[in-house]
Amino acid sequence: MSYDLNIPFLSSTPTPELERTIAFLASLGYTTLALSQTHNASSLPSQVTNTIPLPPVLKTPSKTTILRRCTLILSDPAHNPRLTVLSQSYDMLALRPTTEKAYLSACLSMPEISIISLDLTQRFGFHFKPKPLMTAVNRGVRFEINYAQAVQGDGPARRNFISNAMAIIRGTKGRGIVISSEATDVIAVRAPADVLNLLGVWGLGRERGLEALGVNPRGVVVNEGLKRSGFRGVIDVVNGGERPVVEKKEGGKESAKTKTKRKVEETTVEGTPPISKRQAKRMKLEALKALKANASSQSQKEGSSSSQIKTQIQSKAMTLDSTSKLKPKG
Amino acid sequence: MVRIKNRYLLVNILYPKLESATSKTPIPDVVAFNQPTSSSLDQNVLLKAIRAQVLELFGDYGSGAVLDSLQIKYFSQATSTFILRVSRSHYQIAWAALSFMTKEPVKNGKNCVFRVVRVSGTIRKAEEEGIRRAKEIVIMARREMGEQSDSTLDNIFGKGGKNNAADATNDITMVDAVDSEDEELSDDD
Predict the structure, then answer these.
(1) Which region is the signal sequence (chain B) (predicted)?
(2) Which domains, ranges and CATH numbers included, belong to chain B?
(3) What pLDDT digit, counting tens, does each position of A49-66 carry?
């Protein structure tokens, strides 16, 4: 069970070649592969479309799973790269920071991404310090080492790659690393054992290496799947349940009304009791009134009683908040 | 006096590159990946190429470390397999060098991938593994051919091929765990 989560997909590569790469990876023992499309944050089109083909179109070996991933090149974190929109149209989202600022913000914030995939053939002007690295790893973000960058690269690229890879391995102590290929050509793909040896020469222990090929990428895949299909990362919705089809009543308005109500009910089924919009509004008004009355009477009454009311109001407000969150998004 | 200990790497040469279709009938992937090497490639040329690669990657120190022990014990062009001997303390260097080679070291050489399929402490184990793999590949190729044309071959060889393929993939990841044990044994005697 090995994973290769980075096979570059360019619209210019002919399909037979891509199929050949997938077949070769499968014959080497990789079972889950992710085809990756690269976008640049500074020139992101307004409508991002996912053009990666999936197995019915793409001929693949039967036991291989194909995923679709997006790699976003980011140089300025202030750019607002619309990560949520991107992550919806792909199976997983990776970030390739090119500057220290972007790298740090990817390590410390940005909940949407699951992989930080640096271009290790460059020389970075900063050190890979253990603190941001380990914060990222503890948050569940994995660092990707793409070995094909070394295999395909020339002298300086290879030197930089080795230096950067060693720095990352040293900073994380080998934890939270994902090894993938990023091979633009079939020839740069290597078997899992070969990759392990290479990384072993560069300082990644055998155990950690195995983890980086199997356990860690599996975690990424499962997590990303949960983010998309699950409910708040706690419950995985395997089958959302189907409602029996209700025959339409006469009058278009009423049917439309029932539809919207149904949606609200569906979303609130998971825990909190359903509250209708009207009821919510009433509660809100009451809370406001109470707050005003409380403010006026606060000067007369003692502190203890007023604080009690306050907490009551707070709890009410909190329930309101939770209901508003659960509303369907259009 | 302590015996000098070696590692024997069993290496397959694979040809994953898609060639422009010359034959009309499509070749199954297994056959294409494991095609024979060109006849101009022999042991000496290969050894020289590996040495050069070690020198490029690891410099004088690395090439000096493996210089004495590096030797090709067996080379078969038909099955694209060879057994490489390296000293035990530096076999990783030679292996890494093999991973960085992308071409047959001859004139107009085809692109290829050197894949180490087994690391062993004795040459006998490496040999046995080589034979086992060659047999497996034959079975797999026959099965794929059978799927493409007729099911006659399937009738002859049965459905056992599928299990074999699964075993092969298991072996790949487990290669090293198994090896380390068995070389310990072999070293003792």
Answers:
(1) none
(2) 6-123+175-188 (3.30.70.3250)
(3) 777 777 777 777 878 888
